[in-house]
Amino acid sequence: MDARFTAEQDEIRGALWDLLRRRCGPRELREALDTPAGHDPDLWAALAGQLGLPGLALPEEYGGVGCSATELALACEETGRVLAPSPLLATAVLAAPLLLALGTEAQRADLLPRLASGTLTATLAAPPATALALTCGNEGEWAGGGRAGGVQARLVRGTGGDATAGPGAPGGGAGTVWRLYGQVEQVLDGHTAGLLVVAAHAGGFARSRTLLFLVSSDAPGLVRTRQTALDATRPRACIQLRHVEAELLGGDDEADVLEALARLGDTVAAVLACEAVGAADRALERTVEYVGQREQFGRAIGSFQAVKHRLADVYVQLQAARSAAYYAAWAVGQGEQRVGGLALAQALEALRTAAAEGIQLHGGIGFTWEHEAHLYFKRATGDDLLFGPAHRLRAHAADAARLFERTEVTV
Question: Would you call 200 helix, strand, or coil by DSSP?
Fold first, then answer.
């Protein structure tokens, strides 16, 4: 592994840092969070139009830049540094890789260029921690398991028919229509995404299988409601599907959807780890700057040894998390698996520690909700709830590696 950044990676990071410094300061961030969409459309247009960020990890034949997930993860470190609210994670990290991996050629040719240009946003409607196999295996009942709950898919014979197909009927033939019924909570950018990639169960309880479906934002029967979230920089929505017509992703119900979701989970974890490292770095930077200015007993509080020790501990934890995140970003670019979860766990803990110490050392103003330090603490807590928690990320990684598997010894 070569730990040095390439010239292209340095250029991407530098251009992104310069744009975000000018377009996503604390005031612009607050204003964007108060909008119905939860992000600034002009900033998203700049990220897509000037930098091609949504298509960074997409092939050039579909309008992308042609880089790997490594470059996307490093770019997200810069967006995490300023907590930039945008549909980048939902569109480029969650939805686009699934379309690229499982979509038919017609679906890829139609959707990926629009995603790469930023004119179309998308998201994954599924519980991320379980569906992406971050905290447990995703073979379980996270989408309903054929029982009540989750999202259920029903195959209708003919474009306008009412008869349902039997459990073993094929799902990819021409003239068939799928209808979805159910509800998904906490869908990232679900209230604004132009395309939903919905995970649903088909075949009933006895022969249940998980499939992915494409649902347009204007589909009849689709109800989207923005939810109040602790972390307003990650807007999310409740998605209700009331017999919504959907298109099967890939056109083949024999595709290994669970395996594709698990592979995606490792990439998502690496991207989130880099993003959390960027946020933790900025939180520590702001705290160091503040303790150098605030005076008590006639001297800056940053000169007290106890304060130095606390900040040094945060710095050591941050550097360890950065090393793990960079390795995970490199590994997913090389096709390695089962490294992202551990990096994400370490990064989330580093962000939580940096944000908590920042609030403490900012004193009275740090404890006000209006202060910027709380945005970083909310990001740490929100990601921990949505993609973790850290101890479950580590436990699942240990189970996958059979680290604590019992071995019987016969004498």
Answer: strand
CATH code at position 184 = 2.40.110.10
Predicted pLDDT at 364: 79
Strands (E), 167-271: 176-188, 195-202, 209-216, 222-227, 236-248
Residue 300, beta-bridge partner list: 295
Q: Which of 93, 120, 147 is the last residue of a domain?
A: 120
Q: Is the pLDDT of residue 172 over 60?
A: no
Contact 14, 75 (CB under 8 A): no
Distance in angstroms (rounded) separating the CA atoms of residues 3 and 7:
13
Lowest mean pLDDT among 50-59, 70-79, 100-109, 140-149: 140-149
Other Cβ atoms less than 10 A from the Cβ of 241: the count is 27
Distance CA 350, CA 389 (A): 13
pLDDT band at 214 (very low <50, low <70, confident <90, very high): very high
Range of the domain at 115: 7-120
Question: How many CA atoms lie less than 13 Å away from 30 in the CB half-sphere?
Answer: 8
Q: Is residue 381 domain-shared with residue 294, that is, in the same domain? A: yes
One-letter amino acid for residue 300 of the chain: A
Distance CA 216, CA 220 (A): 9
Q: Where are the alpha helices (DSSP H) in 34-163?
A: 41-49, 69-81, 88, 96-102, 105-117, 128-131
**Mean pLDDT for the chain?**
88
**Phi and psi, residue 94, nearest 5°:** -95, -50
- 105 shares its domain with 132: no
Asked if residue 410 is part of any domain, the answer here is: no
What is the per-residue pLDDT across 293-328, written as a single tens digit (0 to 9) for each? Answer: 988 888 998 899 999 999 999 999 999 999 999 999
Global pTM reads 0.92
Residues 136, 37: Cα–Cα separation, whole Å: 32
Which of 221, 255, 289 represents a domain boundary (last residue)?
255
Please tell me whether residues 162 and 106 are part of one structural domain: no
